[in-house]
Amino acid sequence: MDVSYKTTGDRLSESVADSDIGQFIESDAYKYGFILRYPQDKTEITNYNYEPWHIRYVGVELATYLYENNLTLEEYYGE
User: Fold this and answer.
1) Which of 6, 9, 18, 71 could form a cystine bridge with 75, CB 3.0-4.6 A?
2) CA gyration radius for the chain?
3) How far apart, in whole angstroms, are the C-alpha atoms of residue 62 and residue 45?
4) pTM for the full predicted model
5) Which one of 14, 26, 44, 51 is the catalytic residue?
6) pLDDT at residue number 20
7) Count of C-beta atoms within a 10 Å radius of residue 77
8) Which residues contact 38 (CB under 8 A, 6 or more apart)?
9) What span, in angstroms and rounded, lies between the C-alpha atoms of 58 and 7?
10) What are phi and psi of 39, to 5 degrees?
11) Which residues face 56 on adjacent strands?
12) In this predicted model, what pLDDT tens digit does every residue of 41-52 receive, in sequence order?
């Protein structure tokens, strides 16, 4: 799912990371089962550029595990 921020004109840009919603995604989204799908420091692993607006629902248990271990889905599944 892509999340945009009204003050950026609903554009998908890295400025989302600096917004309240971007900060929430980074710090608390896992508590609700969401992960940041393409983190900034994992582009070589995901093969996608950083997308602070792109989240994915994986369930609370897996999201918490990924968050606590700083893992992407690729790392978790050994891809």
Assistant:
1) 71
2) 12
3) 18
4) 0.86
5) 51
6) 84
7) 8
8) 46, 48, 49, 50, 51, 54
9) 28
10) -70, 155
11) 35
12) 999 999 999 999
